[in-house]
Amino acid sequence: MASRLIKEDRVARNERLKRAEESRKQLHTSLTTLGSQIDADLRDRITTIHQNAQSLETQTRTLKNRTAALSKTTRQWSGMAEGARSKLKEIGDIQNWAEMIEHELLVMEEAMNIVYDEERLMQEDTQPVPSTA
């Protein structure tokens, strides 16, 4: 009977060892699969991060170029506005000059009318009055 108990114990121990080995293999396989999945997920994320970084660099360059172009256009428009302001000032100066000349001509005309009227009055005073006989 003792030999039978020893045999059963060996069989039970072998069964336990076999199950433990299978459990270790399953654990190893699960850990390997889990590691591969995590590794694949991390690689996908890293790839996405690098692609986004490249996209950001491209967008940054584009933004810098467009900002430089906008700055150039702004300077051009500013120059055009300054030129237009200068021309408008010149037009205003010319208009002011023309108004001053017109005013001076009106004053001269009025002075000439006064002189003309005074000369006519003087001539009327110096002319003999025709007699009505």
UniProtKB/TrEMBL annotation:
One GO CC term, this protein: BLOC-1 complex
Pfam families: GCN5L1 (PF06320)
Gene Ontology biological process terms from the UniProt entry: endosomal transport
Superkingdom classification of source: Eukaryota
UniProt family annotation: Belongs to the BLOC1S1 family.
Name of the protein: Biogenesis of lysosome-related organelles complex 1 subunit 1
